[in-house]
DNA sequence: CACATTGTATGAAGATTGTCATACAATGTT
DNA sequence: AACATTGTATGACAATCTTCATACAATGTG
């Protein structure tokens, strides 16, 4: 996990890059539910950034429901809620939001959908 | 072009979002070499941001060799823009991130992908 | 030439980001 | 109990981002 983390000097705040990369690792399955995240201090040392900056990223992840933090123990990938059967309303709302996000990054909504299909299909 | 521009409140600086979206449009061919970009003032008004912020984005694009600015005339896509960035990495990263978001909300990644396909394909 | 349009520039103010230094609090181990 | 580990918190400082207000400079048009 730690080895995958990289920072770029492209104007995007460090904590945002970190937040997004970890979120991506979770979404991709590299980090399974319940798995322990690297220590904030580890991340800070490896990436040569401040502890506060890592904390900000982790806090954002917790706010998004992706991560749970336990003092003295560590941070863990949240156990995802089960069974999404018929949540069409939520799905559509999320889809609209995601589509806007894709556009905002210059990513084709079509290609994004394809990539998502591969993620859910080839699970890994 | 102007209609495609959108901003998000996700921690990424506005001028970076703008810079990346226009760069993506150029890379994808939506803006052909020599084509005129929307006026800085137009963009500022449409997106309800400051002229200085737009200027920063345009300046970054010029520094990257994607755009040429001519005082009194406007801004134009460079005649020989550098090789378009590879968007596949970004697409995959966004997909993973979005998948995490979906899981955290209990939304099926598969169904989300389907909803996105409808949005881009038959989506009106 | 007069005028509108468009890019360029500056300075001030406030919010955000990142670092540095330091400490406290909860957990688990010895 | 003592200790190491890990998350949580604060205050100060510099740099960056954004807005606001206000200009100046180059280009093209009537």
Structure report:
Two copies of one chain form a homodimer. The first copy, chain A, is mainly α. Chain A is built from five helices and two strands. Chain A has helices at 14-28, 40-47, 51-63, 88-104, 109-121; strands spanning 67-70, 74-77. Chain A has a two-stranded antiparallel ribbon. The radius of gyration of chain A is 16 Å and the shape is globular. The first copy, chain A, binds a DNA duplex (30 and 30 nucleotides) through α3.
Q: What structural category arises from helix and sheet content of chain A?
A: mainly alpha
Helix % of chain A is 40-55%
- What's the β-strand tally of chain A? 2
The string of secondary-structure elements of chain A, in order, is HHHEEHH
Compute the gyration radius of chain A: what is it? Answer: 16 Å
Largest interface: A-B, 57 and 53 residues
How many H/I helical runs of chain A? 5
Cα-to-Cα separation, first versus last residue of chain A: 16 Å
Uncertain stretches of 5 or more adjacent residues of chain A: none
Indicate the multimeric state.
Answer: homodimer
Describe the main β-sheet of chain A briefly: 2 strands, antiparallel
Write down the overall geometry of chain A. Answer: globular
Strand order, main sheet of chain A: write it out.
Answer: 1-2
Beta-strand percentage range of chain A: 5-15%
* Overall mean pLDDT of chain A: 91
